[in-house]
Amino acid sequence: MSQGDIQPLRVEGAGTATTLTATAFDRPVHLSSRSPGVWEGLLGVDVVQKAGSYPVVVTVTRSDGTTASAQATVAVTA
Fold it and tell me: How many CB atoms lie within 10 A of CB 75?
C-alpha cells in the first residue's frame, strides 16, 4: 500500500464469530459481517504515514465467548 491508499480488508473463515475487531496503524478498523464467516472493512493508510511495515491484528470473538487473534503485516511505501 502507498501513503493515502484505501484497500478492502476481508476476513474469511470466521465461523461462529459474533464480533470481529481489527486494528492497523494503532487505530481500529471497522468490520461488518457480509455472510456467515465473512467480514469486510476498509483499511486506510494516512497520507503522512511513514513508509515501513505495520501489523494488522484481527481478533475473533466466538458465540461461546472464546477469542482468537491473527496478525498480518502490511507494507507502506512513500
Answer: 10
